[in-house]
Amino acid sequence: MKFGIVFFPTVGPADKPAQQYFDEALRLVDLAEELGFDHVKMVEHYFFSYGGYSPDPVTFLAAAAGRTRRVRLGTSATIPAFQHPVKLAGKLAMLDNISGGRVDAAFGRAFLPDEFKAFGISIDESKDRFVEGVEAIKRLWSEEDVVFDGRFHRFGPVTLLPRPVQEPHPPVFVTTARSAESCAEAGRDGHNLQTVPNVMSTEELQNRLALYRAEWAASGRAPGTEQIHFSYPCVVAEDGEEARAKGRHDDDRNSAAIRDAVASWGTTRSEAYPGYEKLVEATRTSHFESKMEQQKLLIGAPEQVRAQLEQIAEWFGDDITISLGVHSGHLSFEDAATTMRLMAEQVIPKLGEGA
């Protein structure tokens, strides 16, 4: 397993000023570099405390690039539907140059009706816009004199500058939360996979991974060359009860943030998002204890979290990469730093050693 950190702020001005949150997050980037973590990532969301402090992950990652030399820099994920592909391809190529070729580019469809409404884009078009946007970006990165004639964007001939450092382009990840077909398509298209285990059962996720890996191999690609990233909220403390109390508070605040963000699904229906109207009720019935029982959260003393990770490896394979959500903003910088240090010093080195 490889480990990195992912920033998904769920705070707003009433909780913590944005300037303070970013200062703390960038100091944690420094710590990730120091402790040998594999990557740092940042999400893209708008308006709500649920991710709203991060409308442009590339801006944050550019700041992170200037403070680091080794750690990889990932979007988690950026949304092609909300930007022109020439603009997004250029921003990510520029970041790849600034960072010396350390970008992992994850793309997602988005799922919040209020975000689509603000951009004046039909939520029913999200999948088609996603597919077209990713195709255009990959071509802009890897080809010259690109002529693109899509449903939503037409341009060319153009040659993107700067060219990415990584050839033929930065690793491309597809971020999917619920769709089995999205996993299959990612495998067929040779895209890496990024997902959140919290939103499905263990059996559902196992089935999706099996489908993804089968499609990857069927497309002629070598098994085991794909990258699979999972994201888990994580709180570790020397005392397990202290970690649990802090983790419960963090999860309660995160759950409240997503409840507000998905409220418009109560009155929104889209064939592109079957079953998403159930999100409103699902967020009301989400409980900390059940998440802990199902290994949806990495919370506890070092030996407890190590046992959780070994169970996760048994379920899904030990070749996956784990992105640790260490700082949503509701706990202190010191709490997040403690989690990272204990993971690096007492959890990760001891994986596989047994009790």
TrEMBL record:
Enzyme class: oxidoreductase
Record keywords, A-Z: Monooxygenase, Oxidoreductase, Plasmid
Superkingdom of origin organism: Bacteria
EC number: 1.14.14.3
Signal peptide: none
Transmembrane segments: none
GO molecular function: alkanal monooxygenase (FMN-linked) activity
One annotated Gene Ontology cellular component of this protein: cytosol
Entries under InterPro entries matching the protein: Bact_Lucif_Oxidored (IPR050766), Luciferase-like_dom (IPR011251), Luciferase-like_sf (IPR036661)
Domain (Luciferase-like): residue spans on this chain: 1-317
Entries under PANTHER family matching the protein: BLR5498 PROTEIN, LUCIFERASE-LIKE MONOOXYGENASE
Name this polypeptide is given: Alkanal monooxygenase alpha chain
Source organism (scientific name): Streptomyces lavendulae subsp. lavendulae
